Amino acid sequence: MSRDFDAVVIGGSADGIVAAAVLARAGQRVLVLEAECEPGGTLREFEFAPKFRAAPLAPDLGHVDALVLRATGAVLPAAIAPDSCAIALGHGTPLALGRSIAATTAGLKKFSVRDAAAWPAFAAEMHALAGFLGELFRRPALQVDGKGAGEMLSLAGLGLRYRALGRHGMTELLRTLPMALTDLLDDWFESDRLKGLLAAIGVADLPQGPAGGGTALAFLHRHVGAAPGVFGERLRLQTDGAAFVTALAERARAAGAQIENNAAVRRLVVRDDRIAGVEAASGEQIGCRSVVSAVDPQFTLLELLDPIHLDTEFIDAVRHVRHRGVTSHVLLGLNGLPAIPGPADAPAGALWIAPSVRHVERAYDAAKYGSNSDEPVVELRFPSVTQPNLAPAGMHVATLRVQYTPWQLRDGDWTRARDAMADRAIAAVERQVPGLTSRIVQRAVLTPVDLEARFGLREGAVSRGEVALDQLLFMRPVAGWSRHAMPVPGLYLCGAGTHPGPGLTGLSGLLAARAVQAA
Amino acid sequence: MTNQYDAIVIGGGHNGLVNAAYLARAGRKVIVLERRHVLGGAAVSEQVFPGFTFSVYSYVVSLLRPEIIRELDLPRHGMQILPLESTVTPLPDGDYLAMWGDSDLTRREVYRHSPLDAEAITEFGRLMSHMARAVKPILGMIPPDPTSLSPGDLKGMLRLGGHLQSLGVKRFHALYKLMTMSSSDYLDEWFEYGPLKATKSASGIIGTFMGPRSPGSAYVLLHHYMGEIDGAFRAWGFCKGGTGTISNAIAAAARAHGTVLRTEAPVKQLLVRGGRAAGVVLESGEELHAPVVVSGLDARRTYLDLVDSSELPDELLAQLRRFRFRGSSGKVNLALSELPDFTCIPGIGAHHRGAFSISPSVDYLERAYDDAKYGGFSRRPYMDIVFPSMIDPGMAPPGRHVASIFVQYAPYHLDGGWTDSRREAFGDAVVDTLAEYAPNLKSAILHRQVLTPADIEATIGLSEGNIFQGELTLQQLFFLRPAARWCGYRTPIKGYYQCGSSTHPGGGVMGAPGRLAAARILADT
């Protein structure tokens, strides 16, 4: 082999770079191979039309745990925090969820005095429950057969955290996780507007409607690391999220890691039943003791690796991981900003078309039978409001996250359905934001099929594996193999497809690196 | 004093009767108070039309715990289980899928549709019985309170933990998947043939307000696999004389041990003295006294109807408000001049001795659910149909027949509420759908009884018509059934216990809650 490293990281996503930085800082010789022209993965902005840019898959960086910053030495780039986070459009006055619990409570009074009164307690309880999940997510996934002193200590620590929830909190956690989001919201609120908005936030990118069991867990998963009462938003940077990856990459390089762009990996090299290196698309064989793959688990295990090295039961389990992307993105270049209903800072927040729980559920029904929603749920953002450099002077960018649009359409293929889907989404927005359509000068559409082709997201699922009770914690990516080390010695996985799942930026990279170090 | 007892059991449903029988067997002086004129609750046989006897509500057996059959010697008291031999799923294209008691026959039949599935079905059955065996000890466990540090609860948690660990990692993971996945996703991992997946996933939706694609529905699938007759897992049966015979057999066992059984004795409220149960007051004003009162009613009735809420902690009341019932199924009982002749298997034959399942595809079931999700009854519902008179000719006059049709979905909270005309429209939807598969059905109907969840609630008292006394969803099981901290059959009122299906391990003609509650009471008092 021409070159030799301790570890090769496949994929320069945030998780991949975190893994590289942690290993390099521990003195390992690390090489990162990124297939694209620069690291950042789905966090990267791109030009969707001449002079118009956006990073639609990551308007928000998610949660960056303090552990990640400590282990890499990276510093978070400047963040922004508009007062209005999520605004539900439609049927008269917009309903706004703000950063301040008091302000949200005051605003909710217009919709329901009872709900306004319940809001502070709801915010506190969701925060406490998500806080406990956060504890589960920042350590290696619990294992059923966990033994050994470290394991026991970790368990004892968790046990204390669990007890700290109090009797009520402990019960609520057990009760809430398997619940349908609809039921959870019904337990707290009466306003359909409020419930519709929270339901849409909870099931974002999920191939389930809010009446599906376990959607309360998805709602909480997304709330980990968010401020109390702030839903649908965690960490927004002044720039695109890739700025954070750049900061991480600097730390990794400073510690001696090499990062190579335009360097796709063709296959994993296995010798004597363990990882011996990787073969790049260029044909170069690069030797290493361990490989940390930050790209899709199925792709890594079933395509980069020769399946001969895996037993059939494991292969079956990997094949059964559910993805089912249901989200499309419509990206618009605008020659000006339309008048946007709601609070003054609404254009800087996320605007939702999800007027009721029924609306969200009905939108899901279509996808269940393999067709696009007639009345989709839309999350509308104007990223150029806070990042003017995304569009030419005086112009703006609008991004529409459209749900539900199944990866696999039952009749016909996406080439024919693409434009009709986008038209419907734009029409739905136009009804709430009149004048949007007349300002459109550019438009690009990314269906789940496009997302798969462009970003390597299997079935177009940004989650890289549905967030569901049976695909989290010790079940992610597959039962019993959640601690990042795979059955072939020397092979490790990180990224959203592994524990702790999407939106917890860098944690899986950190945990995978620790697993490499422990080996 | 004649109105003084050791224990009073409210509600003569099968769990109340089991509870009474076990208490009496231990030497306690017990009385059972039943509101209706007939014992059995949802497990009753009634002559609804002259000459035609129906298991009006619950209609098949398999979950009844074998230890109860043994310990109460139920066969001696008249219980006789006759096996249901097959399940046939007629298909819209005129074909069918049949599953027989004989697994070789089933394999051959499935092979006709999918050789891959024929291979998978044996292994699937084996896994399910492993899983059922893994769950079985949990069914026989009094749930500990996981939030408590009391020695008893800690011991219970350790026992539970020990059991789960003894399963081994692989089985634990398999069980966990079954507890958390949707039945449709779960079956997708095993099978490819649509009607097979649909028919199997149908057992995952029974009695719950979920579609087969909702996570959490796979567990109910297991619940229905748990059936065992004479130790044989998976076999469903029919009780000679109808389900009421089971209740009567349990009642006879209770009586043999000295239990007093009173019907038409509705209880108005629990008597509480000095913070503990002292007896009950009947609607008639009569008072009965006992240091132990056991309610076999569902959680809502046990607490909210019979007890003044001021006696109950807010924490419990809040949980009860959130405990979900929402009955989702109805029942149609038909008196027939002749058996329906199914176009997929013409003529009358052995297949009529089994069940028919109207579940041609998972989408069909999902669409049936969609109707209910938005407040309507399914226009084309899922149905499970049996002809008890084919197994026990005594159920109908010679040459005539009865059909028992379990129908889902019929939501309790129907938009606009249930009325007589809506009930009949629902009955028509059932008959019309079934007639598509058996065209002679309509002309064969002599009488028809349609029961909506509202009727079930009004007649036998099950809140919102839920056949399990509360949904069998993960968040309403084990130590959360019906409420955390009050999951172990005790209530906040000393001496007051609950023993219905609202408690662990839940519904079905299983008897386990009644038996476990008796064990708790006998240990406590």
How are the elements arranged and paired?
The complex is a heterodimer of chains A (519) and B (525).
Chain A lengths: L2 E8 L3 H12 L4 E4 L12 E4 L2 E3 L11 H7 L6 E2 L3 E5 L6 E4 L2 H8 L4 H25 L11 H16 L1 H11 L4 H8 L3 H11 L12 H7 L14 E2 L4 H13 L3 E3 L4 E7 L2 E7 L4 E9 L3 H8 L7 H8 L7 E8 L15 E4 L3 H12 L8 E5 L14 E8 L10 H19 L7 E7 L1 H8 L35 E3 L13 H12 L1
Parallel strand pairs in A: 1-2, 1-12, 2-9, 6-14, 12-18
Antiparallel strand pairs in A: 3-4, 5-8, 6-7, 10-11, 11-12, 13-16, 13-17, 14-15, 15-16
Helix pairs in contact in A: 1-10, 1-16, 3-4, 7-8, 8-9, 8-13
Chain B lengths: L6 E4 L3 H12 L4 E4 L11 E5 L2 E4 L10 H6 L9 E3 L2 E5 L5 E5 L2 H11 L1 H25 L11 H16 L2 H12 L2 H6 L5 H12 L11 H7 L4 E2 L2 E2 L3 E3 L4 H13 L3 E3 L4 E7 L2 E7 L4 E3 L2 E4 L3 H7 L8 H9 L6 E8 L18 E4 L3 H12 L8 E5 L1 H4 L9 E8 L11 H16 L5 H4 E7 L1 H8 L35 E3 L13 H13 L1
Parallel strand pairs in B: 1-2, 1-15, 2-11, 6-17, 15-21
Antiparallel strand pairs in B: 3-4, 5-10, 6-7, 8-9, 12-13, 13-14, 16-19, 16-20, 17-18, 18-19
Helix pairs in contact in B: 1-10, 1-18, 3-4, 6-9, 8-9, 8-13
What does this structure look like?
The complex is a heterodimer of chains A (519) and B (525). The relative contact order of chain A is 0.19. Chain A is globular. Chain A is α/β, with parallel strands linked by helices. Chain A has helices at residues 14-25, 66-72, 101-108, 113-137, 149-164, 166-176, 181-188, 192-202, 215-221, 242-254, 297-304, 312-319, 357-368, 414-432, 448-455, 507-518, and strands at residues 3-10, 30-33, 46-49, 52-54, 79-80, 84-88, 95-98, 236-237, 258-260, 265-271, 274-280, 285-293, 327-334, 350-353, 377-381, 396-403, 440-446, 491-493. Chain A has one domain: FAD/NAD(P)-binding domain (3-Layer(bba) Sandwich). Chain A has 16 helices and 18 strands. Chain B is α/β, with parallel strands linked by helices and 525 residues long. Among the domains of chain B are: 7-43 and 243-324 and 469-524, FAD/NAD(P)-binding domain, CATH 3.50.50.60; 121-230, no CATH class. Helices cover 37% and strands 18% of the residues of chain B. Chain B has 18 helices and 21 strands. In chain B, the strands form six sheets. Chain B has a seven-stranded mixed beta sheet with strand order 7-6-17-18-19-16-20, sandwiched between helices. In chain B, strand 1 (7-10), helix 1 and strand 2 (30-33) form a beta-alpha-beta unit. In chain B, helix 1 (14-25) runs parallel beside helix 10, helix 6 crosses helix 9 (217-223) and helix 8 packs across helix 9. The longest helix of chain B is centred in the first third of the chain and has 25 residues, at 115-139. Classes of the chains: A alpha/beta (519), B alpha/beta (525). The interface between A and B is large, with 35 and 37 residues.
